[in-house]
Amino acid sequence: MRRHPNFPRYMVAMFGIWSGGGDDDRILSQIQWDLGRWLAGVWAMYLDATPGGITQTRLAALLERAGVSSGTRSRTLLLFLRFVGFIEPAPPGPDRRNKVWVPSPRLRAAFVERFRREYRCMSQLEPVPAGLADRLDTLEFFRPLIATLGELALEGFKVIRKDDGPRLDIISQRYGGMTMLGHLFAAGAPTAEAYPPKGLISFSMKGVAERSGISRAQLRRTLEVGEKAGFFRFPRDGEVELTPLVVEHGEFLAAGTYLMIEWATAQALAACRREAT
Fold it and tell me: How many angstroms from the chain centroid is the CA of residue 242?
């Protein structure tokens, strides 16, 4: 995929997704800025899209399956999801002992918008089926799409290795990290012809920090951590060089995102065809 002639165009479009939009809804901004919130949102949507819905019992089982918790923190995570506006109580069912939650309209809208952006980005590499973005508004397409994506996210936790050198998660797991990276990539390669970014990039510390939802001190610390990992050369405030290592990691992340969404989309379309027969 990285050898595809349109890959630079795809990467430049991906920078726009990572960096987000200035007029985004608060929840959409949160899942852009914070990988943890993005993943929490994916799993909330996944539980809702699969039999049983969002319950504390199912959330505990999911956390154990992912290996990120023993499951005892499921109540804390439920309270957090409620506090940040990701979920809300479902209408009372016949069994009032089993409290069920549903994604908030704003969380659903945020993910629909995120997928629309992903499809526009993917179209820079290969044509996307006509009308695909419009189908995101239909539950018969969106639910199997997010269910497949949730399964892929869960499986991804099982193959992550922590001992194979620097990982991009030292950036992505920091609040605003991917948004910062998107702005720096975009500053270094604003067009496909300028890709990959080379040499020192001049940027506004204040501007990038504000657009990433972090302080300048947080931005500086993230760049310093990335420099120690070999991702950046950060000689002074307002100048940075993106090393071939971070470019390679960014390309792997972008390619992996493409393949995940392509597979999830294929499964959703197949589910729609089965429902139609």
Answer: 21
Beta strands in 48-128 (DSSP E): 87-89, 101-103
Q: Which residue has the tokens 């069994």?
A: 95
Tokens of 233: 């050369």
> What span, in angstroms and rounded, lies between the C-alpha atoms of 59 and 53?
9
The radius of gyration of the chain's CA atoms, rounded to the nearest angstrom, is 19
How large is the average pLDDT for residues 97-108? 90
Instruction: Pull the structure tokens for residue 47.
Output: 């539980």
Tens digits of residue pLDDT in 56-69: 999 999 988 887 76
**Stated pTM of the model:** 0.87
- Tell me the pLDDT tens digit for each residue of 176-218: 898 999 999 999 999 999 999 999 999 999 999 998 889 999 9
Phi, then psi, of 8 in degrees rounded to 5 = -60, -40
Q: Which of 259, 29, 275 has its CA nearest to residue 148? A: 259
Q: Bridge partners of 102?
A: 88
Distance separating alpha carbons of residues 232 and 242, to the nearest angstrom: 5
User: d(Cα 6, Cα 16) in Å, to the nearest integer?
Assistant: 16
